[in-house]
């Protein structure tokens, strides 16, 4: 019997005198813990691009095991050894969610076999009397059932245990499969009549039409033989597919390839035509013996793994890239561990399956067979169960599979609060300690602050009911820390935090941890206990002051470096107040060190080589960047909470950039003052409805960020413009007074003289552009990366990397096609390209832009870059959205079919007009890389001035940037010909230089010194000469493969950097991009986990020691990781890997300059390598004693076929 229970708390009526608070009766409003997303799979399943999804649109990852029922006696194997229900439950406990259940076609085309022969008769006819007796003992219910009814019982029991089923038509007549000489190997063979086959499929589909856990039908296992050519496949496979779909439109229709289902490559250039699409799935098989015999022991493991993965991708994996689901429906190896080929193959396969995030079905469940090729009780060494059908054959093998059982992409099941009427059934037995929600159990994290997940089987966590109320649900982490389930108020998700209020402290409020969160619908009651505030005194160091703290805090204050005043000795300067405000509001003790940034002391440059502040020391590590610091403070000192809800975090965010625009404007009528007033008025209206602070009654992080900016606005505009906030904006003025009058603000504000000095106009000073290219010109005409990270985070990351400028690319069609620019939304653009995952990513990370028209989204990007102090160059990259560039492009040069000079000039003028008053847009690049067979100077001189004049007339403030010909490598035609325009002080030229811009292979064919000097001479001749003639020149594109594997690129970059430094160039590197939404050609992927294929575990942080190190853990419990091959830094939970300098030592984690750059070497790219200070090449490795990550000499980098690199293979996902 199942029971439902509701986790609730009834909160008494609270009264508050404050006018913004409300009295709330919570006894009639109940919230309930449910999980995100609702993974009680909602049938039927269908497909969306390459993913299998449920009825609610949530991804369903199939992690299946093959259960044979196709051999003589046509009964599911193992029923003579264990009860059917025990086997089903064992499947669930091993982490599978699905069974690929095989069956012979004869079961549907031979009524005698299906309906007249009983299980007992079938076994006895084969003289399997012991098995018949075993079934009578363990499964008496099915003994006298007809064969098909017994098959139905198996499917039914699997469903009762929450297991999905794929019905796989394995062969025609019961028996073992498969060889080339089988009489049913392919269409038209003696025992494979396509007409009878299609009818049998239709009949099976009909009989399971209303059985919801039957989610798919595989049409035929391993087509093969001498006739397995594609023509017959295309002739008959659609007929089988249509027969299934017509009989049962709810099931997935799964199609296998030829050559034992290893080959679907014939679909590369030929379309598969059926009347349906959202149920179509393909399947592929891969065993160690699927390729060259003995290849895995004849060749180096790295080389053969890379080679065979290439073949597998060519033969079937390509379908994923084309938007079709692909199931790896058979794979496996001898689980006794004695097959060297099989062991190496499995490590390679697991890495590939994880990278592709495949659905899969391992061969096989089978412990042994009733009868196989004449042998009774033949043991299946590939089976996950042993011959007893009770025990796991090899737990290490099962652990390896666990690494790919859960999705790496798609929906991760977590918990949240929901209305009771919308929540799923839950059960909790205090003795068992397992919280079950919709057949999945709670998995607790090992680190405080992380979300609570759901899983199955052995991964379930045991919860205890502690405290006098028994309403804290608690657990212990691996290092003994006691944590409790808690609620994250930002999104009502369930997280794990240190247990509250287990002492006798009467002031403590445990509400968020009492199985239910009353403050999600009531008013937060947490407040600072002022009785505990103390002022820290003591002998201050020179240049150091102390701030507030609480006696509950650690006695040791945080060290913080901030800017010193430029007007008064030993006083605080401007531009660091946000961090100090956060410390004051949280009552964190700190030692403040004032740094003279004009004459930076040597001790400061050692800890901040870039000379930037603020800088805070956490756990012996210096951390830079206000965002990172304030987030760390929130995590380390959670009380009082200052987190702002995401939907309010951007309130008032445009005020600062419009303030700067007005302050720097020279023309009273240019609209900059009105732009500022508009933003202030919007903010005033918001405060009227939601104040007094942005998040209501209590100050939060967004106020601490905006307050100092408003303070600067008040002082700077008052001094330089004699301007003040109008009295009509009364709510804004009250807000400023509330913030400025706080004790924390008064203590941390800079003197007015310093603010005035900081904003004093610096006329005539050089501005050096150090830019990064951010592509927004490809389909879908949206800035890349917004599906991966919040826009503001990307902007801040650009700043943190030292760039001051972005060259933002755009297609001309954005200005000449109003439908694209203003009528098509971001969501529509992505969905029209079947980029549904990216649309979902934008909804998650940048919901504000999802439903904006394309151009408005582009404006948001420019605006946010400005808010983060970044200048922008708008680069017209091409005409229509797509990848660029080749000689054959239709928009390569003036007069080409898609490059009308008149339309181009109008588009440039329109873009310049639209960004006329946007002060951080400092330049416009007229066209990227003019090229082609017609790129001669005459056309350039004819049309380029017209584009330049169009921009300057529309927006006289921006720089007008002109590119050359030959892919912008050549401006030499300006040596003896004058470029005539009506302006001069806005004219800039640009030049590109890549390693491939010159003689092919030159950098490896010639001496580096010689080729560098030669090519620098060419670059100077083609463009650099302009500098000597007094014209600005931007090196607006350059770059190389940042993985470090391109010898030509590495040499070229060293040469380029030397030349750029010598010329002191302005520049823009290609590119910011981690990967592309959609690009013709390869993109670099930023992934989320690092899998160790040999163990099936993932890399995570080991917190047990004083210094965080790395270890392996179940992938579902691992912390998020990111690795961009260009950057070479492996980040785990916001900390970077620090490699040791001696082999055998553990790998640590840290921040900042100590992070080590890793390379992906060997043919597989699965060795993560680095060099020690003395040049020794080491690789990440696993210490099998404790699963810790260590550094050891790299294995198997030679052609030695006997070497096994498994322990050093790490797949970046």
UniProtKB/TrEMBL annotation:
Transmembrane segments: 21-40
SUPFAM superfamilies referenced in this protein's UniProt entry, alphabetically: (Trans)glycosidases, GST C-terminal domain-like, Thioredoxin-like
Chain ranges of the GST N-terminal domain: 563-641
Keywords from the UniProt entry: Glycosidase, Hydrolase, Membrane, Transmembrane, Transmembrane helix
InterPro entries xref list: GH (IPR017853), Glutathione-S-Trfase_C_sf (IPR036282), Glutathione_S-Trfase (IPR040079), Glutathione_S-Trfase_N (IPR004045), Glyco_hydro_5 (IPR001547), Thioredoxin-like_sf (IPR036249)
Superkingdom of the source species: Eukaryota
Classification via PANTHER family: CELLULASE FAMILY PROTEIN (AFU_ORTHOLOGUE AFUA_5G14560), GLYCOSYL HYDROLASE SUPERFAMILY PROTEIN
Family: Belongs to the glycosyl hydrolase 5 (cellulase A) family.
Protein name: GST N-terminal domain-containing protein
The species this protein was found in: Brassica napus
